[in-house]
Structure formats: structure tokens, C-alpha cells
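Q&A FORM
Asked by: J.P.
Topic: structure of Flavodoxin

PROVIDED:
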Amino acid sequence: MCKMNVNLIHLFFVKNTQRKGLFIMSKKLVAFFSASGTTKKVAQMIAEEVKADLFEIEPKVPYTKPDLDWMNKKSRSSVEMSDKKYRPAIMKKEMDMSSYDEILLGFPIWWYVAPTIINTFLEAYDFSGKKIVLFATSGGSGFGNTVRELQSSAPDAVITEGRLLNRGTKQEINEWGNSL
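REPLIED BY: S.T.
REPLY: Here is the structure written out as C-alpha cells.
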């Protein structure tokens, strides 16, 4: 009888360390790409708000200010974004994505969609069965066709449009974090 009680207590403890109330706790990751620092600031605030791990998607060759000149058709970002199959190289980091249930994926909006470096990231790791919620910063445009364009890079994940966090205020991030 005593052994059975110990086993029941163990089972209860193990099952309930993964729960909060009636909701199963999920381990979250905030992954982001930031060329200018704006998205990085927002990502750090989100990670703190939702108590998630933080992962920076870093290009092998960092972007310079001239690279980001969207008015110059020959700038690096303009050239990359004009070819949807182009995949900028990233610094590949050892990361076990299997330990995460939900990935909050952030980036600046470039030409009405996510930069192609986000496709590179999605193709570099296994996101099978994961829920990926997008967030972005933008000077004025929305998500456009981002979900559709990213889905092919992670076909076994569920990708959903999250929120534009242009102002990146604490209140805005708290409200969005609480809605997840």
C-alpha cells in the first residue's frame, strides 16, 4: 500500500510539474532576426514577458547600412528580396528545437514580407509539429504574404500571423504576451 501511494504521488508530481492550473505549460522560444536593433529590442521584451528562451538569427555576413538601403535596387537587401529562392547564410548554432512547443518568430518586414533569412532559419532546423507565431516590426507595411511564403520552408509546422509590434511599448508587448 505504501509503495502504491509513493507511485501515485510521484505520478501526480511528474504530471503536474508540467501544468499550471488546468493548462499545460509549453516551453517557448523567441527567435528573431534584427538588422537594425529594433526587432531585437522587441524580442527581448517578449522573451521576458512570456518567460521564453531567446535565440538570435545572425547572418554569416552582417548587414551594413548601405546593404539595407531599400531605395537602391542594387543594395544587398533589395537583391535578396527580389529573388524568393535566395537564402542568405546564417550562423548555424547548435539548438535542440525538439524541446520547444511554441516558437515566437520575429523579424522586420522587408518589401511586405519576412526577409529571406527567415526562410534560411526555418530550413536549417526541424520544426515538425511546432506552432510558430510570427511577430514583426515595420515602418508601415503589414505581413502581406508572409505566412504563405514561410510555410513552404517549414511545411510540417503550423505558422500563424501574430502581431505587428511597431511601437514596441511594454504595454503593447504585455497585452500580446498575455493573449498567447
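FOLLOW-UP: Residues 2-23 have pLDDT under 50 and may be disordered.
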